[in-house]
Every structure is written in structure tokens, then in C-alpha cells.
Amino acid sequence: MPTPTQGEPEEGFTPSGRGAPSGDSGSRFARGKVYAVTVAAALGGLLFGFDTSVINGAVNSIQSTFALDSSVLGLTVAITLLGCATGAWFAGQLADVWGRRPVMVLAACLFVISSIGSGFAFAVWDLMAWRVIGGLAIGIASVIAPAYIGEIAPARLRGALSSLQQLAITLGIFLALLSDAGLARFAGGASNELWWGLDAWRWMLLLGVVPAIVYGVLSLRIPESPQFLIRRGRKEDALAVIANVTGAADPEQRYAEISSSIEDQRRSSYRDLRGPAFGLHPILWIGIGMAAFQQLVGINAIFYYSTTLWQSVGFSQEDSFTTSVITATINVLLTLVAIFFVDRVGRKKLLLAGSAGMFLGLVAAATAFAQASGTGDNISLPEPWGAVALVGANLFVICFAATWGPVMWVVLGEVFPNKMRGVALGVATAFNWIFNFLVTLLFPILSAAVGLGFVYAGFAFFAALSFWFVKALLPEFSGMELEDKSKLERRQA
User: Who has greater pLDDT, 463 or 333?
Assistant: First the structure.
């Protein structure tokens, strides 16, 4: 999609802030603008959460419709993650070439195509292909939202606004589970015909078209990030965004700071990622580590066995939809906690507290599962270990949702220097999806081979390791503009 040429103002904005309100009303005006554009960008996270979760309500019907064995069904579900990794890897480069806004529109288009194709799939290979396309869209959205929000938000609000990405993801998960439950109950079962000769499970997948269209339309209405505009030499457009959206007191000074941090006007490339630490820049290793630990603590494995945990303390399998929606609701509420505290407490303190809490919860779950009998979905836990497992798992989910879930995206959006942010964020996010895929793929294999107790003990080990990683290596950038951070990094180098 074409971007405005040099000299054409961004739609809805006036160069150098002319026409914007001044004084206190101007501050409120700028804050309202930055909230609005952040929410629009974060809707990519809603699609991210919706598309990755909507398959849950359809999976059994897909298996029966296409007569799949468990291995093929697992690949059909997990193949999206490979698309996610690929989309994330290239998203940063595309964003530096085309701009942040056109890449959001691309993601929305891919979401629409994937939803329609998946809903009308006639064979399993056909469904897999559409799910890979959906994965590309998810990967792109997972990179572009934190990159854009990190660049558009002022330092005093950046943590909270960047956390909206995770809030949108949790809302997407909630809406997907809620819509799955509603459609299945309305049709009398996910495999039953609903409207126009289509089964309910197909409507579950088709419903993703609605938020995708909303995201695409809103993406066309938001401005480009100042960093991209400056790199393209579009000074007047950049000043308009700086004045009218970020609310900078001195737009010219802010423009000069961003220009200085970029160092040159060429777009970033993978060459910028090179460094002395095993061939990569040290800050990239920090980003990759953050992305990897968020998955290695086992959040997806916990959700994989959530139904078993509920059953172990007396809930029936028929209540699985309801309990899943309740869990998703808790996820949303605790993300709001992170939004409230991330700028007040700081990234490091939240992450350290989260790592400690996750470790305690995982140790409790590992100890309980070590007492389990049975395999797969048919495990049973003697008293009182069912309750211990449930408390431990929920403590883990609470600590993850309030810390590592949202704060990891905040860190990735701000930790990289301007000159490499696009490509570095793409690489780090790709590793997040790769480790997501590996944990999802290996969890049932390792559970059968060594038992759930040892697997959850492994997750606890990574939670403890994440504490050390954050304490020893992660810098604290709360309250700093991205350009101030770049200056600090150059002095330290």
C-alpha cells in the first residue's frame, strides 16, 4: 500500500502542530489522540488472540469432519505457529520499507483471507494452508503493534500503552471462547448446521472477518510513526505527529532527538544486528531471551491441561467452555493490573515478582503432578494433590498474566535502538513463536515419556532462570524516551 509522499501531510494532522489546542486543553487533546491511535494499533493483538484461540471450539468437529488422527489434528492446530514465526521474522523489514501503517493493513487483509478460507475449507491440507496464512497475519501483528506503540507513545505513558497489546490479546482470547460457546450452544453442538447450510464450527472461524475489517479500517485512519517519517525525510509530517499525537512541548527539539538517535536515514537491515556477542548485538540477545522465557515457563502447557485441573477437583467435562471463559476473564482483569503498575513500579520489578510467583506456582503443580496416576487426559490426583495442582497452576497463570504476559511486549517495544528496532523486534518475536511451537509440540511427548511432574519441574527451572536473566541483564527504561535510551546505550558502549 502506498504511503504519502514527502510534503503531503498525514491525514487529519497539521504540520508543526498548527491548529492544535494549547495549554492544559492541548495536553488533554494530545493524550486523547495517543490513546486513540494506540487502541487502533493494539487491535492487531485482539486478532492475534482471537485467531489463536478460536480453533479450540472447532477442533473436535474438524477432527470428525475430515476424519483426522491425533497427530494430523495436532499438526493442523500447531501449523499456525510456524506461520506466526515466519510473519514475525519479516514484519520488521516490511515495516521499515513500507511503513508501520501499511503493514497493519496487510495483516488485516491476511486475517480476512484466512478466516474466509478456513471457514470454507474442504480438506485438511486446504485448512492447513489457510491457517498458515492466518499465522503470517498473527506474526505480523505481534511485531507491528509493539513497534508502533513504542514509537508513538510518550515516555510517561509508554509502559501502560504498550501493555494494551497484551490486553487486546486477552480480550481476543475471551471473545473467541465466548463466541465459540455461544455458537455451539445456539446450534446444539459445534458439528451441527447453523446458518446457510454451514456447520457451527465453520461460523466460528468465519467470525474472525469482523474484527479484521475493523482493524484494517482503523489502521487507515492513524498516522505513521515519527521515526519512520523522519527516516524517509518527511520532516513536516513527522512534526505534525509529534505535536498533535505525542504532545511534545517542543516538537522541533523532539524531532532533533529522534533524528540524532537514528544516526542515518537509511532503513535498518539485518546487518545492524551484528555484534561481538556470538555474532549478534548484545541487546538483541536480551530481546531473544525475553521472548524465549515467556514461552519456556510453559503458559501454553498450563492451558493445555486446564480442563484436567478443573476435573481433578470435581468439575465436569461439560463445564469446560464455562471454565475456559472464566480463565480468559481473569486473564483480562490481571492484564489491567499490569497496565496500572508497569509505569509506576517499573518493568524489572514486575518481571522479577512475576518470575518468583510463577516459580512457586509451578513447583506446587510439579509436586502435585508427581503424585498423579494415569496418562493423557485421564490422569487423576489423590487428595489433597488435586487442590494443590489447581492452586499452583492458577497462581502461575495469575503471576504470568500480571507480569510476563504484557510486560514482555513492553520491553520488546522499547529495548531496541531506533536504528534497528524494526528488524530486531521481528527477529525476537519470531523466536517467541518458535519456542511457542516447540513447547506446544513437545509437551505431550515429554509428558508421556517422563511424566507431568518432571515437565512442570522443567518449567519451574525456566521460571527461576528468568528471574536471574532479568535481574542480571535487563536494563530498566521506565520513564525514558526511546531516544534517551539510545544515548545511554552509546555511552555504555
Answer: 463
As its CATH architecture, domain 19-222 has: Up-down Bundle (1.20)
Residue 311: how many other CB atoms lie within 10 Å: 21
- d(C-alpha 297, C-alpha 358), whole Å: 8
CA atoms of 353 and 2, how far apart (whole Å) = 45
- Model confidence pLDDT, tens digit, residues 156-204: 676 677 777 778 887 887 788 778 777 877 777 666 777 887 787 788 8
- Any idea what DSSP says for residue 90? H
pLDDT above 90: percentage of residues in the chain: 12
Residue 193 grid cell: 448446521
Provide, rounded to the nearest whole percent, the portion of the chain with pLDDT above 70: 75
Quick one: cell of 270? 539485518
Which residues is 300 bridged to in the sheet? none
- CA 194/CA 267 separation, integer angstroms: 50
3-class DSSP state for residue 485?
A: helix
CATH 1.20.1250.20 fits 270-493, yes or no: yes
What Å distances lie between residue 397 and 159, 297, 333, 483, CA to CA? 21, 11, 12, 34
* Own/partner long-range contacts of 194-199 (Cβ < 8 Å, ≥24 apart): 198/119, 199/61, 199/65
CA angle 88, 93, 99 (to 5 degrees): 105
Which sequence spans correspond to the domains of the chain? 19-222, 270-493
Tell me the Cα Rg of the chain. 23
Cell of 58: 472447532
How many whole angstroms separate alpha carbon 276 and alpha carbon 422?
20
Is the fold of 19-222 the same as that of 270-493? yes
To which H or E segment does residue 348 belong?
A: helix 347-369
Considering only the C-alpha atoms of the chain, give the largest distance between any 2 of them, rounded to a whole number of Å. Answer: 71
pLDDT of residue 378: 61
CA 201 to chain centre: 25
